[in-house]
Amino acid sequence: MRKLVYYVAVTLDGRIAGPGGEYDFFPGGDEQQSAAYSAWTNNLFPETVPTAYRAAVGLADAPNRHFDTVVMGLGSYRPALDAGVGSPYAHLRQYVVSSTLEPDIDPAVTVVPGDPLALVRELKREEDTELDVWLCGGGKLAGALLPEVDELVIKNYPVVAGAGVPVFDGAFDPTVFDVAERTAFPNGVTLTHLTRR
């Protein structure tokens, strides 16, 4: 069965964005550190680079290594829409969970107005692929999908936001994950891969 993997950048105080959806405050280190870190993560998860930027970072023809599907909330989709991009991950099947978004926003995007758990359970049962499903964000969607999250890949940045969108925004539901691997980078970012116990 396919897995749902939440791959996301997180502050020290557990925020994935600021109160207004800001994400440009995550520190990348100096130019050399930032370039090395980006190259490493882009090579590991090439499919998480938006389609518009793939050629610029040498991934134009890179095959998907881990995911063939992305699920995101409206807050995660909104920056692309605001930039005039209706299909930010054209190299993936794209699902946006939103009760307010028009269903025909883009022919390459499926808007899901209802139960995200039912959607993810259906995606995980698909047998015609060995690639997993990427949960891109946001916090409310991650909170709703916590029962189906199989793995976490957390890019923990050395910054405190103080307020903003939590990594999981849902009911109190202690869920234990085991650390499978951890990598520290010179720019202060720690990438941790966790699996559901």
Automatic annotation (TrEMBL):
It holds the Pfam family RibD_C. One of its GO terms (molecular function) is 5-amino-6-(5-phosphoribosylamino)uracil reductase activity. Residues 3-189 form the Bacterial bifunctional deaminase-reductase C-terminal domain. Coiled coil: none annotated. Gene3D superfamilies: Dihydrofolate Reductase, subunit A. Signal peptide: none annotated. InterPro entries: DHFR-like_dom_sf, RibDG_C, Riboflavin_Biosynth_HTPR. PANTHER family: 2,5-DIAMINO-6-RIBOSYLAMINO-4(3H)-PYRIMIDINONE 5'-PHOSPHATE REDUCTASE, DIHYDROFOLATE REDUCTASE FAMILY PROTEIN (AFU_ORTHOLOGUE AFUA_8G06820). This is Deaminase. The lineage of its organism: Bacteria, Bacillati, Actinomycetota, Actinomycetes, Kitasatosporales.
